[in-house]
Design brief:
The chain is an alpha/beta fold. The protein has eleven helices and 13 strands. It has one domain: Spore Coat Polysaccharide Biosynthesis Protein SpsA, Chain A, CATH 3.90.550. The strands form four sheets. The chain has a seven-stranded mixed beta sheet with strand order 7-4-1-8-10-9-11, with helices on both faces. A two-stranded antiparallel ribbon has the order 2-3. A hairpin with a 5-residue loop joins strand 9 and strand 10.
C-alpha cells in the first residue's frame, strides 16, 4: 500500500528555537494515557458506527488499539520535538499502573521517537549537528503509574479526579517554585503548541487555562502551582457533556481565575476519527496551508486561539505536526486512500 510521505507542515525548527528565547517556557506537561492494549483500547471506535452515503462503517475491534497507539505516539512526538517546549518537564501518567503497563508505554515512547532529531536549545553550537541533536528524546519522559490502577479495565471516570490530583502532586515534586502544570489527554493529536506554552505561562502567573473539546470535555488544562488538586478535581462530571463546564466551576469556586483557549478535538467514536481523517487529508492536499492551529481569522470564536491581553507576552510560531503516526495508521486500516498524485481522500469502504 502506498503511504507516500506527506509534506511536512512544521515550520523551520531553527527559526522557532530562536523565537522561543523571547519567553522561557517552564513547567511540567502531564499526558494522561491508557496503555494501548488489544481488545481494551478505543473500543468505542468499533462499537459505534458512522453512516456516510448510506454506508455503516466501523473499525474492527482488533485494530482499535493501533489507532490508540498512533494517537498517543503523535502526542508524545510533537511535545518532544517542539523547540520551545524542549526544556519543559514531561510525564506520562499511565494506566494500568502495572509492570506490563510500564513496559508497553516505554516501548511506545521509544518507537515513536526513534530517529527523531531533538533540538537542544541550550546548545549554542548550532552548526554541530552531532552535538545539537539527540535522537533519544524518549529519555525526556518520566513514566508514572496512575495510583490504584492495576488492571486494564481501571482508570474509570469515577477515579479520574483522584488520579489527576495524585498526578498533580507528583508533577510538582522537584519542580521550580511557581511553575505550573499542564494536563493533556492521549486522544487529541492536533496539539495547539502555542496554547500549551500560554497555559504554562498563565499557570506561572496564577491563572488556569483550559482548551475545551468539541464533545463537552476538555483537551488541555493548565493549573497554577498553588492549587489544591483534591479540591479542583473533586466533583467534576467526567465523561459528560458538562465536563469542561464543571471543571471551570470547580476552579472558580476555589478562587482560581481561568482563561479559555481554542477548541480541541477528542477522538472517541468513529465519526471523530473520520473528521480527523478529513482534516489531515485537507492539510496534505493543500500542502499544509489549511489553518488547523488558529492562525487566521474565523467566524467561530472557538477556533481562535486565546486573546487574553496577557498572551501577547508569548511570541511563538505555531509548531504544526503532520500527525505522521495517525496518518500512517489511517492508511493502513483503509480509512484514507490515495486518489491521484498528492491527493488523498476518505475511503468509501472501511469494512476490512
Amino acid at each position: 500500500m502506498d503511504t507516500e510521505t506527506p509534506p511536512t507542515t512544521t515550520t523551520d525548527a531553527q527559526t522557532q528555537a530562536t523565537n522561543s528565547h523571547s519567553h522561557k517556557v517552564e513547567g511540567t506537561i502531564v499526558v494522561v494515557a491508557k496503555c494501548p492494549i488489544a481488545g481494551s483500547s478505543k473500543t468505542r471506535l468499533s462499537s459505534s458506527s458512522y453512516n456516510a452515503i448510506t454506508k455503516e462503517r466501523r473499525i474492527p475491534l482488533h485494530v482499535c488499539h493501533l489507532v490508540a497507539k498512533a494517537l498517543l505516539g503523535d502526542v508524545v512526538q510533537q511535545l518532544t520535538v517542539c523547540p520551545y517546549l524542549r526544556n519543559v518537564r514531561k510525564m506520562i501518567v499511565y494506566a494500568p499502573g502495572t509492570k506490563d503497563g510500564e513496559e508497553i508505554m516505554l516501548k511506545l515512547v521509544k518507537e515513536c521517537l526513534a530517529g527523531e532529531d531533538v533540538v537542544d536549545e541550550n546548545n549554542e553550537n548550532d552548526d554541530d549537528d552531532e552535538n545539537n541533536c539527540d535522537n533519544r528524546g524518549w529519555k525526556d519522559w518520566m513514566l508514572v503509574p496512575m495510583e490504584k490502577s492495576t488492571t486494564k479495565e481501571e482508570m474509570l471516570s469515577s477515579d479520574l479526579g483522584e488520579g489527576l490530583a495524585d498526578a498533580l502532586d507528583c508533577a510538582r515534586s522537584g519542580m521550580g517554585s511557581g511553575c505550573g502544570v499542564v494536563f493533556l489527554g492521549m486522544d487529541s493529536p492536533e496539539i495547539p503548541t502555542r496554547e500549551v506554552a500560554r497555559a504554562l505561562y498563565h499557570a506561572k502567573n496564577g491563572c488556569a487555562f483550559l482548551c475545551p473539546a468539541d464533545d463537552g470535555g476538555y483537551g488541555m488544562l493548565g493549573v497554577p502551582h498553588r492549587v489544591d488538586g483534591k479540591k479542583v478535581f473533586r466533583g467534576v462530571r467526567w465523561s459528560s457533556e458538562l465536563t469542561a463546564v464543571s471543571q471551570i466551576k470547580a476552579l472558580t469556586d476555589n478562587g482560581i481565575k481561568i482563561i479559555l483557549g481554542r477548541i480541541m478535538y477528542d477522538i472517541d467514536v468513529f465519526k471523530d476519527l473520520v473528521k480527523l481523517a478529513e482534516r489531515l487529508c485537507d492539510l496534505r492536499n493543500n500542502s499544509g496551508k489549511v489553518d488547523c492551529c488558529g492562525d487566521n481569522e474565523s467566524d467561530d470564536v472557538l477556533n481562535i486561539e486565546s486573546r487574553s491581553p496577557l498572551t501577547c507576552e508569548i511570541n511563538l510560531q505555531e509548531f504544526r505536526s503532520s500527525c505522521s503516526n495517525t496518518w500512517d495508521c489511517l492508511i493502513k486500516i483503509g480509512l484514507i486512500k490515495k486518489d491521484g498524485p498528492g491527493i488523498f481522500v476518505i475511503s468509501d469502504d472501511n469494512s476490512s
